[in-house]
Amino acid sequence: xxxxxxxxxxxxxxxxxxxxxxxxxxxxxxxxxxxxxxxxxxxxxxxxxxxxxxxxxxxxxxxxxxxxxxxxxxxxxxxxxxxxxxxxxxxxxxxxxxxxxxxxxxxxxxxxxxxxxxxxxxxxxxxxxxxxxxxxxxxxxxxxxxxxxxxxxxxxxxxxxxxxxxxxxxxxxxxxxxxxxxxxxxxxxxxxxxxxxxxxxxxxxxxxxxxxxxxxxxxxxxxxxxxxxxxxxxxxxxxxxxxxxxxxxxxxxxxxxxxxxxxxxxxxxxxxxxxxxxxxxxxxxxxxxxxxxxxxxxxxxxxxxxxxxxxxxxxxxxxxxxxxxxxxxxxxxxxxxxxxxxxxxxxxxxxxxxxxxxxxxxxxxxxxxxxxxxxxxxxxxxxxxxxxxxxxxxxxxxxxxxxxxxxxxxxxxxxxxxxxxxxxxxxxxxxxxxxxxxxxxxxxxxxxxxxxxxxxxxxxxxxxxxxxxxxxxxxxxxxxxxxxxxxxxxx
Length: 491
What we know:
The strands form 5 sheets. A 7-stranded mixed β-sheet has the order 14-15-16-17-19-18-20, covered by helices on one side. Strands 11-10-9-21-22-23 form a 6-stranded mixed β-sheet, with no helix packed on it. The protein is α+β, with helices and mostly antiparallel strands. Helix 1 (about 1-10) packs antiparallel against helix 2 (about 15-25) and helix 6 (about 240-250) runs parallel beside helix 8. It starts with a helix and ends with a strand. It has 10 helices and 23 strands.
């Protein structure tokens, strides 16, 4: 990030001071540190949420000890009995602490301060008071910054200290961009991803898609959920402390940390980062309730006012970020008019705002597929028969528009689905690494498939004006950023 700031601020005394401060912060202290960096979230034209966490170490314990690996029956028993002592003994070797395990990035009490200013107007600084991180919320802190300028690049500087009697122990710098206003014609690039897991990353430093995406200089990025997997081993996160451990470990990965500090981001939730596979209200995982699973997610990521949101990105693009867990019925309920994923309020909001929008292109981004196809044994999303009544209602509504495109995560393969004779299009972005891909047969190419690839990668989109015509390009990329498929839409 220092090199990025050097390019942006070269020639200014501000840069010289920042570089000196950053170098000075690398001297060894007793902490606390920004081992998880910071994220932004929930950005619109005038506000953003900044999240950070204080840690005992600058980096995750990459050379730590290995977790024990319960077999499938032992995992089921630990889940049923929900005994914290047994959960611990079955996964952590005797005599070791969680801080000694591989990837650990333990939290630390302390205070944080934020400075934020427009890149082109560094004198217009927003400086917060020192504030103590919340030790009850895994040593995290969040700011909601308001009264921002639309279409503006902002620089963020964070400082850490132990208390008001100690020196600054660490500093980090980064940036975000607010969306342009609805009337602004502007080229906008964005990335959409899903399905990450610490053990299924493809480099020691994290998922290589983050390097590939950063080279594209996206204006924003959406993670559609399954950011982490509680119900996968090493460890099975059957307690709050193990859930927090998994977030800490993932957020300490350098590739992710570098990307999130520079790109406007939106984070959605799905089943594996609330509780477990196909999770719904009323479920538990080990010692953790459904309600607490939702609470932990909002502590570990920027918390928006509502879990669903629509954001205009200039004249030609508007995105909808839907919520697929909070309002849903139980998957086991009989199908019918009352069974829902979005819930009544969110569905009415979605229909109303889509009708009201005059954006040239409208992207509805979902954690789960709406069109699919999906596997017949799944009963968790709109492309399955378990929610057929509501999914038919949603597809019938969306088919009234010729400028709405569905983008989704959850599935571990990349695809484009279009039903001939309809306006329905869906783009599945695919898992974050080739090691994480699977769940569909590459040879099972259905008539509705325009593209199918059972590999990892991400979805890149760009809205621009070509020869005066608004154009949307959606590209599936592999983990190295190579384009493997492209669809182009003009108006």
